[in-house]
Amino acid sequence: MLEGKVALVTGAAKGIGKAIALALAADGAAVIVNYNGSKDRAEQTVEEIKALGADAMAYQCNVADTKAVDDMIKEIIRIYGRLDILVNNAGITRDNLIMKMTEEDFDAVINANLKGCFNTIKAVSRQMLKQRSGRIINITSVSGILGNAGQANYAASKAGIIGLTKTMARELASRGITVNAVAPGFVDTDMTQTLSDSIKAAATAQIPLGHFGRPEDIASMAAYLASEKASYITGQIISVDGGMAI
Ligand code: NAI
């Protein structure tokens, strides 16, 4: 389905990003596994992709660093000659109530989560405009839709991604590029491992389907949005959250 296509997934060493990288590779895409610190796990992801028979490469880059992102995109185009799919998955949390949230924690989350998306989208847009095709998929969050106490920085970054997604969809549609976002609810990954049992229980109580999602639940939606089947969908925010945001 995605044979001949080249995909970049940010923050793909583990968790949801890894599941997305594997799903795109299973559909035949060559996948660049971007990572920031987790070199060993990124290389492990590359090995798992190669075992599926697809091409893959790990690339270290902090998505908050504009110059480093530009260099990464140039290097991908130098090696593969094209770039068809961008999945902005890299993200961090630094939770605290507003009274205790430091400026540094606010800036760090906005820079990694929101500015990171701006950096990658800007850097890939020239190539996708030239190709007159492309798929951009941003991972936002139920927190960006509903808000969440203790996550002013994170919710603001994820709500920002929603505005960015809709605006990019409008700017790039005439050249055959679609831009959509997936909004996960609570998913079992390292990010939610840090939550206390009582917070996990309170979170589960808010999920109509009654349990956390799996990374694969998010990956199958991302793979669908990357596919030809989704060619008439753009500017949409698709919740994959067990019904949390109903
Ligand atoms: P995770 O912590 O397992 O994975 C995030 C990955 O992003 C890590 O590998 C990390 O190194 C990478 N990353 C962070 N900052 C980076 C940077 N500046 N440059 C490059 N890579 C960077 O977390 P998870 O759960 O897999 O999260 C993936 C995405 O899904 C994030 O955007 C997160 O906000 C979003 N999400 C997760 C939910 C959950 O319940 N786990 C719920 C809603 C959204």
Helical fraction equals 40-55%
Q: What's the arrangement of strands in the largest beta sheet?
A: 3-2-1-4-5-6-7
Number of DSSP strand runs: 7
SSE series = EHEHEHEHEHHEHHHE
Question: Beta-strand percentage?
Answer: 15-25%
- Quaternary state of this entry equals single chain
Catalogue the ligands.
1,4-dihydronicotinamide adenine dinucleotide
The N- and C-terminal alpha carbons lie at a distance of 32 Å
Q: Give the uncertain stretches in residue-range form.
A: none
State mean pLDDT (0 to 100 scale): 98
Overall outline: globular
Major sheet details: 7 strands, parallel
Radius of gyration: 17 Å
- Count the DSSP helices: 9
- Coarse structural class: alpha/beta
Give keywords.
seven-stranded parallel beta sheet; globular; 9 helices; 246 residues; binds 1,4-dihydronicotinamide adenine dinucleotide; 7 strands; alpha/beta
